Amino acid sequence: MKAKAVTYLLLAGLATGVVACSNDDDATPNLQTSQLVLVNDTSGMPKNAGTVKINELSTGGISMELALKDSFRLSTQEYPAAIVKYDSVLQRDSIYADLGTINGATGTLTKSPVLWNANSQPISFDTLKTLTGFRVQVTTDSLVQAEADLN
């Protein structure tokens, strides 16, 4: 009988311990987000061609959601997107992070996480804020369709 009472006390203690050690990590940290306007200036007048939404991930990296407006895309075409910076030695834009391809039918693309091409490491939101001269660029047939400065 004493053994039964001790067993019940141990089980009650274990149950209390499990409840007391419940996961309190459910609180969502304050993750940063920002939104940029994609601009098309092929006509000589800058026009709003869509948006880039940048979301900080709980893992420390970022995701990017690109949306290209209907008037700046064809449903039968695909639009490569990347983070680029002008390279004065090569005298062209160099790609630092490939974002994938915007589907012309939907006009959207989501890349998560965004990785540096050089080392396949995630780009952090804080690092992104410190970059100078970098742009999100959307192309078609090697022509710039739209872009947004990251700084």
Provide keyphrases for this structure.
151 residues, alpha+beta, 2 helices, 8 strands, 43% strand, globular
Question: What does this entry look like structurally?
Answer:
- This protein is of the alpha+beta class and 151 residues long.
- 17% of the residues lie in helices and 43% in strands.
- The protein has 2 helices and 8 strands; from the N terminus they run αββββββαββ.
- The strands form 2 sheets. Strands 1-2-3-6 form a 4-stranded antiparallel beta sheet, with no helix packed on it. Strands 5-4-7-8 form a 4-stranded antiparallel beta sheet, with no helix packed on it.
- A hairpin with a 4-residue loop joins strand 4 and strand 5 (92-103).
- Mean pLDDT is 87; it is low at 5-11.
